[in-house]
Amino acid sequence: MDALCRQLRSPVLDIALPARGEDPRVVVVGDIHGQLLDVLHIFRVHGTPSSSVVYLFNGDIADRGRYAVEIWLLLAAFKLRNPDSVHILRGNHENEQMNRRPFRMGGGFEEECLEKYGRRVREAFRRLFTLLPLFAVVAEEAFVVHGGLFRTPNVCLERLRSLPPRTWRRSYPDPKLHAQWTEDEQIVFDAQWADPHDGLGWMPSKRGGPATIFGPDVTHRFLEKAGLSLCIRSHRPPETLRGYEIKHEGRLMTVFSASDYGGVVGNRGAVAVF
User: Which residues belong to any copy of the Serine/threonine specific protein phosphatases domain (predicted)?
Assistant: First the structure.
C-alpha cells in the first residue's frame, strides 16, 4: 500500500467509470468509523472491488468503531490484488492527532492497533495515512472530498493538483498554530474539516477552533471553475438520518455510510453510485 500511494504525484485522483463488466460502477463510501458489518453489507449489495466495481472510500475509516484495522486490511488486500479497484481519500480521522485520542474521546485507532498488533503496525498505518490523497474527480462529473470546500478565495482544481507534497503528505496542520498557516495549509485543513451551511460565504464552525463552514456560493463557484456538476463530501451524519443529504441547490451531497452510527444515532447508511 505504501508503495502504491508513493507513486501519486498529486493529492487529486482521477477516477473513470469502468469500461468493462455487466454493470460497471463507481461506489463512493462515506464515513465508516470501524463498523465492519457496514462494509460487508455494502460489498454484498454492490459487489466486491473488481475491475468493473470500483470503490472510493471518502475518509474516516479509522477511529470510534472497534474494527477499523480489519477494514483497512480488507481494503489493502483488494487493492493489492487490483490496484484500480479501491481508492481511499484521507479524512480528518486518518491523522495522528485524532488517532491518539482514546475511544472515549472519539478516537481509538491507536488504541485498537496497539491492542491487536503492536507498535510496528501502528507506525505503518501512521506512515500510510500521510500518503493518502485528499481529493478525487469521478467520471469527469463529481468532485469528492472528505470535509468540504475552502475559505481561501478562488481555489481551483489546478491549484489543488499542484499542492506540494510537503503540504499534503502530512497530518493536518496544528490547529493551535492556525494564525500562522499558509494558504496551502488552510486548504488541507478545510478539505478534512469543513462543513456546509445555507448562508453565503464561509464563517467559523460550531466545531470550534479554526474549523469553518461554507455556503452555496462557495460550492457553485468552485464547481463552475472546475467544469463539474456535483461535490460529494462526508464528515458528519446528515440531519435527515437517511445516510445522505442534498444541499446547495442540488450541487452538494453528503454521504455517510456508518449505519446506526456508534450504536446510538439511529441513522441509515448510504453510498453514492455512478
Answer: 89-94
The 3-state DSSP class for residue 128 equals helix
The three cell numbers locating residue 268: 441509515
Tens digits of per-residue pLDDT, 19-62? 877 789 999 999 999 999 999 999 999 999 999 999 999 999 99
* Location of C-alpha cell 477516477: 15
Q: Is 178 annotated in the active site? A: no
CATH number of 2-273: 3.60.21.10
Domain boundaries, the chain: 2-273
Q: State the pTM of this model.
A: 0.97
The answer to whether residues 260 and 41 touch, using CB atoms and an 8 Å cutoff, is no
88 burial level (CB within 10 Å; 0-12, 13-18, 19+): buried
Q: Which residues are CB-contacts of 12 (< 8 A; sequence separation ≥ 6)?
A: 133, 134, 135, 136, 137, 157, 160, 161
Residue-wise pLDDT for 182-198, tens only, equals 999 999 999 999 999 99
Asked if residues 218 and 194 have their Cβ atoms less than 8 Å apart, the reply is: no
> Looking at 33, 87, 93, 197, which residue is catalytic?
93
